[in-house]
Amino acid sequence: MEYIVTNILLDKYILKNGVEVIEATPSGNVKKKSNILVGDRVLVEKNYDRYIIDKLLDRKNYFIRPPVANVDQMVIVISIKNPLPDYILLDKEIILCIKKNITPIICVNKIDLDENDKEIEYIDSVYKKIGIEVIHTSINNKDKIDNLKQKLYGKTSVFSGNSGVGKSSITSMIINEDVEIGMLGKTQKGKHTTKKVSLYSIDNCSYILDTPGFSSYELYDISHKELKNYYKEFSNLKCEYEDCSHILESSDICEVKRKVNEGYIDKGRYDRYVYIYNKLKEEYNKKYK
Ligand SMILES: Nc1nc2c(ncn2[C@@H]2O[C@H](COP(=O)(O)OP(=O)(O)O)[C@@H](O)[C@H]2O)c(=O)[nH]1
Ligand SMILES: [Mg+2]
Ligand SMILES: [Zn+2]
């Protein structure tokens, strides 16, 4: 039978299939070959009264920090104020999602603070245009949180976004349990806590990861030269040079630059592209020069 790994406690694996929860240990073979992660799908055999993990099924994706496999969705939480949106972080998370084959959903939170905020309009117009779903939430509005909850159905999701945007508040409403609200996340610099991650089960087929986000080091695997491939609004545009970085060339020969000048591509997205490009290039030069 197939199960999903929801917790790992030393050498014990807590597995779930629908309402059934069991405890299992990996066979010697599985243990030798691979490191089982939370989120993994495994096949289990019963040997007398013990459950043995016989096989680790192929993964859709996996991460090292936090150690988790088969993430379907990332709910990227942004608040319209307190704190203001961090658009560089948002764009980086989207790049990571594309790289790891994860569906991003942008969750604009704290809309109770100002329903007509200009940030809401900006996010709606720019990000829907590049094919990303945008939803609005407030922890004071149960219908809106329920709407988000429906989007999680049947999937394994992770919440991301900077500190204070409302990740813990939203997730505790979704799972009906207290998550540390108003506390600093566990990702402060220099504090590499070894806390094991686990999956919260919302119903019998939907899960959320109990730790926010992924460390940005995953992003730094991308070379600056490839970065443009992660921008949907650049695809199908033909610049004079095929390897155009869309940065140095003039708008006579760079179609992307022309579209920015004409207002078809959002200037903010483009400026952040240049910023992230330069950061990746710095990283690259540090490594290889
Ligand atoms: N007005 C308002 N405040 C919120 C909302 N969501 C969260 N907060 C507040 O924002 C602060 C940070 O929330 P928290 O869930 O800890 O954010 P996290 O750091 O992303 O986990 C807390 O004081 C929450 O009460 C919301 O929708 N509206
Ligand atoms: Mg939190
Ligand atoms: Zn170009």
Strand content: 15-25%
- Spans of 5+ residues with little confidence (pLDDT < 50)? 184-194
The shape, in one word, is globular
Secondary-structure class: alpha/beta
Give the tally of structural domains.
3
In CATH, the homologous superfamily of the largest domain goes by the name P-loop containing nucleotide triphosphate hydrolases
Distance between the termini: 51 Å
Based on the coordinates given, report the CATH architecture of the largest domain: 3-Layer(aba) Sandwich
Mean pLDDT: 91
Number of helices: 7
Q: Biggest β-sheet, characterized?
A: 6 strands, mixed
Small molecules held by this entry: guanosine-5'-diphosphate, magnesium ion, zinc ion
Say what the CATH topology of the largest domain is. Answer: Rossmann fold
Helix content: 25-40%
The CATH first-level class of the largest domain comes to Alpha Beta
Number of strands: 13
Radius of gyration: 21 Å
